[in-house]
Amino acid sequence: MHNKKRKKHTARNVCLIIVLLLVVVGAAFGITRYRSIKNSADSSFAPSGVTKQRDVQSGLNNKKPISILLMGIDTDDWVRNYDGDTNSMMIVTLNPNTNKTTITSIPHDLALKEIPGSDIKKPTMIGTAYSVKGTETTIPSVEKLLNIPIDYYALINMLGISKAINKVGGVEVTPKADFSADGYSFKSGENTHMDGEKVMAYVRSHQGDEVDRQARQRQVLTGLVSKSKKVSTLFDQDLIDSVTEQIKTDLTFDRMKTLAKNYRSVGNKITNDSIDGTEAKVDGQKMTTVDEPELQRVTDSIRDNLGLHDKDTGDIQYVFKLVPKVEK
């Protein structure tokens, strides 16, 4: 087992895509423009239905470290209607006191022995939690897995984001490995211009592992943020609408503004991490199983960046046990 921790000092915190596309534009074009952007942002708002473990509004106002659960999906449906599994999951912690951000990837097929808040009491993939009761079962699953608080969430439809990418004329992405997918070839280290269709081939590819795939998603979102900051795209209300239609979050417009104001420095130090597990066959399905020391390592890392004291990790993961062979 190894720790796939990597640092990316030039990357942007992907959760700020909402802020950069909405708040920056609103500040630039006055109250009339501000209202239209506020309306777009408000259309993305959806309460989590989960009781917060702490006073998140006070924490945001007072520049306290916060956590955001990012979930990715691919669907042709409106994101507000989505009720299937999530195919990617990341915990983002923002600490404005240390200017540090951590992005921790959770394998979508990580095995849980149960889904909290549901009748499912058998080994199940964590990505399935959203299909049970949406955020009402997903957020507690993550909190109980790692014994950490989740302050906010955002659900992002990558298929819909590809349409926004076409609206800005494509994005620039630099692949980290050589591979081919859906008829496209990608070269390591080669700056590549991608339209929406090529982007989807890039992020959906099975090249590498779960961590690599989620890193590709972050690259694409970063490219979209960078392109959308240009003046020529800031006037495009259709672009803003197309992005907000693909996001569901319990960050209100006012919270986004506070986030942009109080946490603008957190992109200076970004650490990428992941929960490292082992593939096993559980109840006839291939799932990723994780042992307690690895979960404790991740719990310690996340709680440290949130400024919280040490605690034991959670205990809802499925523990795979090898059955010893009986000598005859």
Task: Identify the notable features of this structure and list them briefly.
37% helix; disordered N terminus; 7-stranded mixed beta sheet; alpha+beta; 328 residues; 20% strand
Q: Would you identify the regions where 5 or more consecutive residues have pLDDT less than 50?
A: 1-31, 322-326
Number of strands: 15
In CATH, the architecture is: 3-Layer(aba) Sandwich
Query: Strand pairing plus helix content: what structural class?
Result: alpha+beta
CA(first)-CA(last) distance: 33 Å
Physical arrangement of strands within the biggest beta sheet: 1-13-4-3-2-7-12
Biggest β-sheet description:
7 strands, mixed
Radius of gyration, whole Å: 20 Å
Briefly note the CATH topology name: Aminopeptidase
Percent range for β-strand residues: 15-25%
**What is the mean predicted local confidence, pLDDT?**
81
- Counted by DSSP, the helix tally is 12
- Helix/strand order, N-terminal first: EHHHEEEEEHHEHEEEEHHHHEHEEEH
Number of domains: 1
Helix and strand topology:
Elements: E1 6-7, H1 17-28, H2 30-42, H3 56-61, E2 66-73, E3 88-95, E4 100-105, E5 111-112, E6 124-125, H4 129-133, H5 135-146, E7 152-157, H6 158-167, E8 171-173, E9 179-181, E10 184-186, E11 192-194, H7 196-204, H8 210-228, H9 231-234, H10 237-244, E12 247-249, H11 253-262, E13 269-274, E14 278-282, E15 285-289, H12 292-305
Parallel strand pairs: 2-7, 4-13
Antiparallel strand pairs: 1-13, 2-3, 3-4, 5-6, 7-12, 8-11, 9-10, 14-15
Helix pairs in contact: 1-2, 1-11, 2-10, 6-7, 6-10, 7-8
